[in-house]
Amino acid sequence: MIHWSIQAEYCKGCGLCIDACPKQILRIDPDVINQKGHSPAQMTDVSRCTGCGFCALICPDCAITIAK
Asked: What is the pTM of this model?
C-alpha cells in the first residue's frame, strides 16, 4: 500500500502536483487554509495511487512525501 502525505503548512496550492498526477487523484482542498493563507493539495483516492512520485518530484515546496 502507498502512503501519501503532504505537509499542508508548506503547500502554496500551485496545482503543479495536480497536473503531474497521471491518475488525476489530487485536488486543491477548498475546506482547508494553511497559515500562509493557501489551500493545500489533497489526495482524493489513495487506493488508486501508484506511487509514481511525479507529484513529489514536481512540488517546488517539497511538501509531498510518498512511501511504499
From this structure: 0.91
